[in-house]
Amino acid sequence: MMKEDAISKQAFSFAADLRRFTQIIFSRICVSSAFHLRLKKTIFILWLLFGTSLAHAAKIGDLRETDWLEQAARFWSLSDPAVVNALIGSVLMGVCCGLLGAFIVVRKLSLMGDTLSHAVMPGVALGFLWAASKNPLAIFIGATLAGLAGTWLVGAIKKTTPVKEDGALGMVLAGFYAVGICLFVMIQRSPTGNKSGIDKFLFGQAAALSTQDLWLMGIVTACALLAVALFYKELLTTSFDVGFARSSGMATGMLHSLLMSLLAFAVVISLQATGVVLVSAMLITPAATAYLLTDRMGVMLTLAALIGVGSAVLGAFLSFLGHSLPTGPFMVVGAGVAFTVAYFAGPRHGLITRWFRQASRRRRVRDENTLKALYHLAEQSNFAEESFNLGQLAAQRNESLPETEERAAALARAGFATVVQATENGLPGTHRNVQLTPSGWRRASEVVRNHRLWELYLTNAAQYAADHVHDDAERVEHILGEEIVRELEKRLNYPQLDPHGKPIPQTLQPAPAGDSAATGYRQPGS
């Protein structure tokens, strides 16, 4: 404490000395000269920047060192009522924005959320002016009316003019935001403007949430949950196929209005925590992250709400670690980190995951092509040979010997083949042979069977010429599943020969009950 007092005294002393020094300088400067006038202005600005800021810093305690570990412990101990309010508000906002944002994302109306977040600014200012204070109910009513007016104006411009929806959204966003900024500046210039707390609506400050704010957020979140629970089927249908919903007799217009109203409510209750500028990010980013993680709407809603809650709580925590840090940017950073993780490592749409999946598919296709080449070599010998020289395989695959050695080694690692040293007159030779294992032979037979069945299907059903089906079959043979193969065999009446007169191979698996006639399932020779 004594150290802090000494620092404060030094700061005040430095500010006073600097002020006296500038006064002496001003008294000696000839203001008639343009150069001296610019110098005077420069010194005055430096005095404002250093002298007044240091004095103000000393007053508010910004020079005091803060231990972030102590701040973190204080946050999670929930001993501060402001922290409790911030956490409750963050959870409510995350749930509400996550749920409604999911429907906005799948409807491709992300820009509508951004427009609403900026359109409510005049309503926030007018609500403040009407109540002459930061009354949550007055601000909520004013912001909601402004948001709904912005939504109506977008629809009116779209219907009555040739302007497209994106143009209407852009105009309403910019126009309402400009009016809101003008009103905010007027409030800030009023005698009580600096103490009003209206500036917290620009970048958000969860610590400024009051009990009235929490009640309002709780009511809106409960309404959003109730609406989603009651009209989930209708909202789901109108989100993905509005034409079908309209033909089914659903009130698509009323459902859209309900969703836009709830979206306006969500934007308004989130302003205090995230700010006008960034509230749209909390609507879109968690929902977009969930969209990358699942293809089920119900799961997407749950994930979007959880990601929204996690991002909001993380933002409130990080902003609490410093002095007067805005909450909104930290919340958006947390949501952005979650989206980045899903973008790169998502189980289905992740960039890295897709790269590994594609690399695995390429390896599988190479292995299957090598297996098919070994089957063709065995077929050429009328299945009398079981072991083939790597040189023969290289010629069959039209590859170099080192490439063929890599392919054989890959088959051996997968358990599809064995590579042994060739013998000449009972002695070890200079070449190596590759021989298929039972599992390798089964897979080779399946690949060739798929290829020849698909060629036959194209010639019979699609009327392709027999010499034009090979390339298509090369691509399809690797992706045909057993159910499709069985259906092909049934449609082709269990064929024995392909369009070129070559026999369609059989696998070594026994036939399942009730389907013993299927070529791909019966024992060889049966």
Short description, anyone?
The chain is mainly α and 526 residues long.
Question: How are the SSEs placed, and which strands pair?
Answer:
Layout: H1 2-28, H2 34-60, H3 68-77, H4 81-106, H5 110-119, H6 121-131, H7 136-160, H8 165-188, H9 200-203, H10 211-230, H11 232-240, H12 242-247, H13 252-274, H14 279-293, H15 297-320, H16 327-345, H17 351-380, E1 387-389, H18 390-397, H19 401-414, E2 417-424, E3 427-436, H20 438-460, H21 470-476, H22 482-491
Antiparallel strand pairs: 1-3, 2-3
Helix pairs in contact: 1-2, 4-10, 4-13, 4-14, 4-15, 5-7, 5-8, 5-14, 6-7, 6-8, 7-8, 7-13, 10-13, 13-14, 14-15, 14-16, 15-16, 17-18, 17-19, 17-20, 18-19, 20-21
Fill in the keyword field for this structure.
mainly alpha; disordered C terminus; 526 residues; disordered N terminus; ABC transporter involved in vitamin B12 uptake, BtuC; Arc Repressor Mutant, subunit A; 22 helices; 4 domains; elongated; three-stranded antiparallel sheet
Give a written overview of the molecule.
By secondary structure, this protein is mainly alpha-helical. β2 and β3 form a beta hairpin. α13 packs across α14 and α18 crosses α19. The chain is elongated, with a radius of gyration of 36 Å. It is built from 22 helices and 3 strands.
